[in-house]
């Protein structure tokens, strides 16, 4: 009877109830599941509370730290408020009260949840324990702060205060944070106030020489009648530096590959090609001297001459593919035209190549070879994957950029689902890396059955631009 009464009471409470022991949820009521948007809650019982049950990865560390404080024995009960999110990502304010209990002789945490979204006041969401929340925020290594729409800081945690260049009450946020005399160019204040979801961005702080990842959302502060936003900024400088090292290594690898291709091309053409050609000449001379020899000697020498001729042509073809002579001798436009003509002749594909504004524009060797490689890879995809019958390539120089568009009417694909080995097979990563090496942009548009369109844009250095090419 008591068990039924307890179950009836718990089922009708407006609070979400949970019990955690050894990081696992050993009890959850139905209201708990409703607050977080779960269709059913019973399957969550027994799962890891912080990895599987609590759905908001952005605030789970704060949630976990409070429970660790309780289990350390320093507190018997803690109440606090925090931003959270439902299973579908919908943000809301959560009020929590947790206390230390025992279950079967072992420590556990009993907690209750209240959805405080309707009040939308930070003060009301945090009224349970302002001091506990302040301590938690000051213990964070992230910068936490609140800014009004007129660029005034009205709250900053310990980490944020330590980085400020001035007094909060006297200076604007852009002066305090970045040492600027006017609002930051990448400020997202206006966008935050009209968004119904938290906004995320990354920016470089020139004053601190650090990269930050920032999450911002609109809030209301007690006693402040202006729109305000809450921001949490994390230092990601180490991650950015690691990414830059990987990019630099990738770029270095591309350059080394091109140097090796150039060396191998010359070796094939100047050494092996010349040797094969000399051998063919010798065989032809021998065949002429033995033209009256009995048997099929002359015939066999003729066949050997044809084999050597084929070898010479193969070496020339390989050498041209590794480092096309037309690119070095005639430039990017003629090299692309030559490849288009060869594709049309070999595969029967209709290729349309147009160029505008390229007269007088001579790009660097790195720019020309990398743009040429993008064209090579794109045409290779047309043959191997797209099954296209028509290809169009447009190359346009309009200062300060060179824009190249490559389109086909082939099978197409879904870029969003293109991952792993399939992307490697299409060479998209390699093409994007080559364009990034040139400080350009690489965009791809495709749909199954709708063909593919690549757009590449790279800057024209002032020293590479001359006269007629400039517009």
UniProtKB/TrEMBL annotation:
Domain Histidine kinase: 371-462
Cell compartments where the protein resides: Cell membrane
Membrane topology category: Multi-pass membrane protein
Pfam families membership: HATPase_c, HisKA_3, PAS
InterPro entries from the UniProt entry: HATPase_dom, His_kinase_dom, PAS, PAS_fold, Sensor_HK_TwoCompSys, Sig_transdc_His_kin_sub3_dim/P
Key words of the record: Cell membrane, Kinase, Membrane, Transferase, Transmembrane, Transmembrane helix, Two-component regulatory system
Superkingdom field: Bacteria
Tagged with keyword Kinase: yes
Predominant subcellular localization, coarse grouping: membrane
PROSITE patterns xrefs: HIS_KIN (PS50109)
Entry keyword annotation includes RNA-binding: no
NCBIfam families: sensory_box
Protein name as annotated: PAS domain S-box protein
Source species: Geomonas subterranea
